[in-house]
Design goal:
Elements (H helix, E strand, L loop, with lengths): L2 H12 L3 E10 L9 E5 L4 E3 L7 H14 L3 E6 L12 E5 L7 E9 L6 H13 L2 H18 L2 H15 L2 H12 L6
Parallel strand pairs: 4-5
Antiparallel strand pairs: 1-2, 1-6, 2-3, 4-6
Helix pairs in contact: 3-4, 4-5, 5-6
Length: 187
């Protein structure tokens, strides 16, 4: 087991957010190779390796953003003479500032702890299963508000659908469908 993986396990046990950055592809010359990984903590410290002093600050910046909003990122750091992959939705392009001139593609994935209010979603589902629509509706409304405050649109949309199921509220369904159509919601 690598050091960063042991650290990831310890952080997850403590309920601390972090991100894992993985080099997916590179064009020589680069110091990082495909499969190289780094764990990036909320304070910006790094365990592992995804590149030197030109690539690491970009990975850290994007990892902190991913931890903040919960969305993964795909980064392309293009060196001199490197070919841009072309405009692709969701790809964040940077110019590689190192003299080596290589190109790196890095996937940054946030790892966020389960929050207390995920229990609210479970309570809502259990109440719905028991047939207690009033308790389920109250819990789904709270879960939708909690997930919305956290910025997790997918879970917020699921909670809004639950609210619609238990109350028949067409506004809740419309809000859920709008969230499901958002470009940053995984399909």
């Amino acid at each position: 087991m690598t050091d960063w993986l042991e650290e990831a396990e310890a952080l997850a046990r403590r309920g601390e957010s972090f991100a894992v950055a993985t080099v997916v592809r590179c064009e020589r010359p680069t110091s990082a190779k495909p499969g190289a990984k780094a764990l990036i903590r909320q304070d910006g410290t790094v365990s592992g390796w995804v590149g030197g002093s030109c690539a690491e600050p970009v990975a850290v910046k994007e990892a902190l953003g991913a931890i903040e909003d919960g969305a993964p990122r795909f980064l392309v750091l293009v060196g001199k003479g490197g070919a841009l992959p072309g405009r692709a939705e969701g790809v964040r392009e940077y110019t590689m500032t190192c003299h080596s001139g290589g190109t790196l593609e890095i996937f940054v994935e946030p790892v966020l702890p389960m929050r207390e209010y995920s229990a609210t979603t479970a309570q809502a589902l259990l109440a719905e299963y028991r047939g207690d629509t009033e308790a389920a509706a109250t819990a789904f409304a709270q879960a939708a508000a909690d997930w919305g405050a956290f910025g997790n649109k997918l879970e917020q949309a699921h909670a809004l659908r639950g609210l619609h199921r238990t109350t028949g509220d067409p506004t809740a369904l419309a809000q859920a469908e709008q969230l499901f159509r958002a470009p940053d919601i995984p399909s």
